[in-house]
UniProtKB/TrEMBL annotation:
Keyword Membrane (UniProt): yes
Keyword Signal among record annotations: yes
Lineage: Bacteria, Bacillati, Actinomycetota, Actinomycetes, Pseudonocardiales
PANTHER family listed in its UniProt record: ARABINOSE-BINDING PROTEIN-RELATED, POLYGALACTURONAN_RHAMNOGALACTURONAN-BINDING PROTEIN YTCQ
One Pfam family cited in the UniProt record for this chain: SBP_bac_1
CDD domains, A to Z: PBP2_TMBP_like
Protein origin, superkingdom: Bacteria
Protein name, entry field: Extracellular solute-binding protein
C-alpha cells in the first residue's frame, strides 16, 4: 500500500475545491462515478436510488458495485490519480481514507439536510480531530439470531445471559435439533477470518460484554492499551472456551468470511448467529421468517454492549464535479433516499439498515418489530470502535492474535500481553499514546 504522503500528493494535486467549498469548481454536468461495497442483492437497491437522483438533478451516475478486492481496487485507482467521485463503504475506511488524503474535509453545516441527521450518526463520519471527512448514510447494531424452531423443540428458554447462551449452543450441538439423527449441527456461527480484521469484528461485542477492550480513551486525544487487562483476558478466555472446551462453534469459523457464513445459518448447519439486521430479508426468503427469532445480545458479566457502526458516503478527492458530489450527499441524506434504501423487494438486501435521518422511523416504514428491536439495541447498547486516527492496524493485529488463541494452542494472557506491546507501538506511531 502506498504511503499517506505519496497518495495525498498523487490524488490531491490540482484537485480544486472540496465538496464543502462555498465556490466549487469543475463541471457541474459531469457524470459522477459512484462505487459501493456491495453484492448484487444490494446493488439493485442502489441502482434505484441513483436513478432517482438522476431524475431529480439531471446528473448522471455511472454506478459500480464492488465486493471482492474493494480496498485493493480503490488503492489502484488512487495510485492512478483517478478515484471515483463517491464511494459508499463502512466506517472502518474513514481513518485510512483520511490519512491517505483520499477524502477532503466536509463542512457539515454546508450540507442541506444535515440538521435532520442525528449527532450520533454524524459521529460515524468524524475523525479523531473532531473534523468530518464523510457523510453518514446508514447505521446498525449487532443482534442475535436464533433458530426458534430448534430452541422450542429442545424446550430451551430465550437466552438472556452468557450462561444461557452457552447452554443453548451446547444443546444445538449435541441434541440433534433438526431431528435427522446425525451429529451435523453446531451451536454458534462466527465469520471470524482475519481478512480485514473480521475476527475482532465478530468478537468485539463479546469482549465488551465481559468488560474488556482493545484501547481506551484517556482524553485529550490520547489512548491507552487495554487489550491485556484482566477483563479482556477473561473475555477472550470465555471465547476460547466456545472453540476449545464446549466446541459449539462451526468448525471452519476462523477462515470463514461473512459471505460464506450466511448459508450455514439458513441451511440448518448452525443455530445462533450474531450479525447485522441487513440479513433479515435474505433469511426470511431462504430459511423462513417463522423459523428464527431476533433478540438483543444475552448479557455478559459487564452488560450487553454490541458493535454499533454503519456505512458512510465518501466524497473522494479530485472530483471533476464537486457540485454534483454535494448534491448527491444531500439527496442521500433525504428522507426519500433513506426510505428507498430501507425498502427492498424479494431477494434484495437493504442498504440503509437504521436511518441516519431522524425524521424517518424504521418501524413505521417497515412495520417489523425486529427492526424496532435493532433500533432499540443501537440506542441503548451499540458502540463503535475507538475513534483513533486509523483503527485498521489495531483491528488487524488483534484479529491475528485472537485467531491464534482460538485455535486452542496458545496461552491467552501471554498472547494478549505480546499484542499489547505491538498496539502501544501503534499508538505511538499515530501520535496518540497516553
Amino acid at each position: 500500500m502506498l504511503s499517506a504522503v505519496t497518495l495525498a500528493g498523487a490524488v490531491l494535486t490540482g484537485c480544486g475545491s472540496s465538496p464543502s467549498s462555498s465556490a466549487p469548481q469543475g463541471d457541474p454536468n459531469a457524470p459522477l462515478e459512484v462505487w459501493t461495497r456491495s453484492q448484487d442483492s444490494s446493488a439493485k437497491v442502489y441502482t434505484r436510488i441513483f436513478d432517482a437522483f438522476t431524475q431529480k438533478t439531471g446528473i448522471k451516475v455511472n454506478y459500480k458495485a464492488v465486493y471482492n478486492d474493494f480496498d485493493k481496487q480503490i488503492q489502484q485507482r488512487a495510485s492512478a490519480k483517478n478515484l471515483p467521485d463517491a464511494v459508499v463503504t463502512d466506517t472502518g475506511s474513514l481513518g485510512v481514507f483520511t490519512q491517505q488524503g483520499l477524502v477532503p474535509e466536509v463542512d457539515r453545516n454546508s450540507i442541506t439536510g444535515a440538521g435532520d441527521v442525528t449527532d450520533r450518526a454524524w459521529g460515524n463520519a468524524q475523525t479523531s480531530d473532531g473534523k468530518y471527512h464523510a457523510i453518514p448514510w446508514s447505521t446498525q447494531a449487532m443482534v442475535t439470531l436464533i433458530r426458534k424452531d430448534w430452541r422450542e423443540k429442545l424446550g430451551k428458554p430465550v437466552p438472556k445471559t452468557w450462561d444461557e447462551l452457552v447452554d443453548l449452543a451446547k444443546a444445538f450441538t449435541t441434541q440433534d435439533p433438526d431431528g435427522n439423527g446425525k451429529a451435523d449441527t453446531y451451536g454458534m456461527l462466527a465469520p471470524a477470518t482475519t481478512d480485514r480484521g473480521y475476527t475482532l469484528w465478530w468478537a468485539s461485542s463479546y469482549i465488551w460484554q465481559g468488560g474488556g477492550d482493545i484501547v481506551t480513551d484517556a482524553g485529550n486525544g490520547k489512548f491507552n492499551v487495554s487489550v491485556d487487562s484482566p477483563e479482556t483476558v477473561s473475555s477472550v478466555d470465555w471465547l476460547r472456551g466456545l472453540f476449545c472446551d464446549s466446541k459449539v462453534m462451526n468448525p471452519n469459523a476462523l477462515t470463514l468470511s461473512t459471505n460464506d457464513a450466511h448459508p450455514l445459518f439458513e441451511t440448518g448447519k448452525v443455530g445462533i448467529y450474531e450479525t447485522g439486521p441487513y440479513l433479515f430479508s435474505r433469511f426470511d426468503k431462504n430459511l423462513g421468517k417463522d423459523k428464527y427469532e431476533v433478540i438483543p445480545a444475552p448479557k455478559g458479566p459487564k452488560g450487553d454492549t454490541v458493535l454499533g457502526e454503519g456505512d458512510d458516503l465518501y466524497l473522494m478527492a479530485a472530483s471533476k464535479n464537486p457540485t454534483g458530489q454535494k448534491k448527491l450527499a444531500e439527496f442521500m441524506l433525504s428522507a426519500e433516499a433513506q426510505k428507498m434504501g430501507m425498502t427492498v423487494q424479494s431477494g434484495e438486501t437493504p442498504v440503509v439498515r437504521l436511518p441516519v435521518n431522524k425524521t424517518v422511523d424504521v418501524k413505521s416504514v417497515l412495520n417489523d418489530d425486529r427492526w424496532a428491536t435493532t433500533a432499540q439495541v443501537y440506542q441503548t447498547s451499540g458502540r463503535p470502535f475507538p475513534a483513533v486516527p486509523n483503527f485498521q492496524p489495531f483491528r488487524q493485529k488483534t484479529s491475528e492474535t485472537l485467531s491464534k488463541i482460538l485455535t486452542c494452542g496458545a496461552d491467552t494472557k501471554a498472547e494478549l500481553t505480546k499484542l499489547a506491546g505491538d498496539l502501544k507501538k501503534e499508538l505511538t506511531s499515530q501520535g496518540i499514546a497516553q
